[in-house]
Each structure stands twice: as C-alpha cells, then as structure tokens.
Specification:
Order of helices and strands: EEEEEEEEE
Oligomer: single chain
Structural class: mainly beta
Largest sheet: 9 strands, antiparallel
Radius of gyration: 29 Å
Helix content: under 10%
Number of strands: 9
Length: 203
C-alpha cells in the first residue's frame, strides 16, 4: 500500500490538495489431497489424488483533487471546497482443479488425467467518478449554515442510471455561547438540524 499527497497554497486562504493512493493484495492456494484420503478418492473409492490451485489479485487506486477556500472577516467565517475523485477496483481470480495422478509425488495439475469442469477464471472491475462541493458560513462561532452537493458515477449503477445526485443542508446554533446562557452544570449546548439524500453503489 502506498499514498502520495500534494498540498499547495495558491494564495492566502486558497489551497489545493491532491492525493493518490494504491493498494495491492495477492493470495495463493496450493492444495493436494493424497490418494490415501477420502478427498483424494472418487465416489467409488478409486484412488485418484486431487490437486487444486487458486490465485486472487486485488488492486485498488484512488485519486482525489480538492480546491479549498477559507477566510475570516471579523465575526464572519466562510469556507468552501470543490473537487473530484476517481477510483478503480480490479479483482482477478483463477482456480483450477485436477484429479487422476499416477502417484502422490507428482502433484502438478498438468500431469492430471482430468481437469475439473469446475475450474474458473474471471476479472471484475468497478470504476467510480465523483464531483462534490461544500459551502459553510458561521457568525461569531454561534450560528452555522452549511450545504453539500455531490454527483456520483459508478460502473455498478444500472445501465440507464450511471449517475446519481446527492445533496444536503444544515444549520446549527451554539446556545452555550449566547450572552444569556449561564449554567455551570452545562459546558456545551448545541442545536443542530440537517436534511439530505444518501445512498451507495449497492442500492
């Protein structure tokens, strides 16, 4: 697994962040069932020997690029960012089985008299592309407003709906920062309300 980051302050309050990450996993199975075991015999008790070999490769990479702006003017604070993210997840699996060996010392499947019909090989690829943005505003660290919007495209989506929009908005109020609030027993009191649309590529 490896990750690389790039941060660049274009000018005061305006920043660019780029991230690239990649991960790779490999698994291997090599099994041989001796002729002297039940798994190495057929239903009639014939001593055949059974070999199975499987490989799986998983590789995923993600790249995100975000432009961010944050500034404070007196008691007013604003923040906004926008960006995109692209990723790919590739899975490659293979499994082969063979039986009918001359002895238990020769275990390579190429020497088996029969290669099983259950041997398989497949490749699956999932790709996604997202665009997103967010805006926040606060006054005197007491009142907050925020809004989010996102557009996701995914190869797992249906044929006629490759893109899905998501949006949300929220407000909050730090009551404990109001001049009228005076309660030694409560250090923090906050009201928050938000609504939006959520989902994932499996729905």
């Amino acid at each position: 697994r490896a990750t690389a980051n790039l941060n660049w302050e274009i000018f005061k309050g305006f920043q660019l962040r780029s991230t690239f990450g990649i991960s790779y996993t490999h698994s291997h199975e090599d099994i041989y069932d001796s002729m002297n075991t039940l798994d190495g015999q057929d239903d009639n008790g014939n001593r055949l020997g059974h070999a199975e070999r499987a490989n799986a490769h998983f590789i995923k990479w993600t790249n995100s690029n975000i432009v961010r702006y944050d500034r404070k003017f007196g008691k007013h604070s604003i923040g906004a960012y926008g960006g995109m993210e692209i990723s790919e997840y590739r899975r490659k699996n293979s499994r082969v089985q063979g039986y009918g060996f001359s002895n238990d010392f020769i275990k390579e499947i190429e020497y088996a008299s029969t290669v099983s019909e259950y041997s398989t090989s497949n490749v699956d690829i999932d790709r996604s592309l997202s665009f997103f943005g967010r805006f926040t505003y606060s006054y005197d660290s007491r009142y907050y407003i925020s809004g989010n919007v996102r557009m996701d495209g995914n190869s797992s989506f249906g044929k006629y709906a490759k893109w899905a929009p998501f949006a949300s908005a929220g407000i909050s109020w730090n009551i404990h920062k109001e001049p009228f609030f005076d309660c030694p027993l409560i250090k923090m009191l906050k009201f928050k309300y938000s609504f939006g649309k959520d989902g994932n590529s499996k729905i």
